[in-house]
Amino acid sequence: MDHEGQAYEIDFTPPFKRVSMVHDLEKEMGVKFPPPDTYNSNETRKFFDKLCAEKGVECPAPRTTARLLDKLVGDFLEVKCIDPTFICDHPQIMSPLAKWHRSQKGLTERFELFVMKKEICNAYTELNDPIRQRELFEQQAKAKAEGDDEAMFIDETFCTALEYGLPPTAGWGMGIDRLTMFLTDSNNIKEVLFFPAMKPDDNKTSAPTEGTSV
């Protein structure tokens, strides 16, 4: 059941559906995008900014290309991922730690697994080029300075480690809490967390002041 109260039956029978992010977003919206290897340009940012405005997709400032694309994917692709679905081939501008795609310029070797419109797994081939990694960190730092809280900073320790060498590497991470929500038919993530964050109790009796007997 989603947050609107609508019930769904989820089919976990493999193989799971695969969706190529940029290609399928173009098909879903009926719009041809600029080439992915131009996504760092201001012209492309203006294209996606205008597209979001035309489609009524909200994106708070800063309206960077990465944030605009993320909102479009959320409104047009993720909402249709009821059964397990892999969204693949993310643009480099959205994946600063992922290695470039070996056959498609501007994209990366990355996928996310979505179930019931929610991401439960993120995976990619690690970028192990220290020069390229620093360039991407610098782009991220610029976005953070412009107000993008989700952008990364320049990790000097990581860049130094890459200069010593990193063999071909890949990895994945799964949100076990979200998966547990689906398996237990829970509507709130707090129901499956061992130590959920709790709001302060405003009605809690205040601590005794100095000199007060207890």
Describe what you observe in this structure.
- With 214 residues, the protein is α+β, with helices and mostly antiparallel strands.
- It folds into 2 domains: 22-128 and 167-191, 2-Layer Sandwich (BirA Bifunctional Protein, domain 2); 129-166.
- 32% of the residues lie in helices and 13% in strands.
- It is built from 6 helices and 5 strands, in the order βαααβββααβα.
- Helix 4 (130-145) runs antiparallel to helix 5.
- The longest helix is centred in the middle third of the chain and has 16 residues, at 130-145.
- The radius of gyration is 21 Å and the shape is globular.
- The model has no long low-confidence stretch (mean pLDDT 89).
- Keywords: ATP-binding, Ligase, Nucleotide-binding.
- InterPro entries: Aa-tRNA-synt_II, aa-tRNA-synth_II, aa-tRNA-synth_II/BPL/LPL.
- Residues 19-200 form the Aminoacyl-transfer RNA synthetases class-II family profile domain.
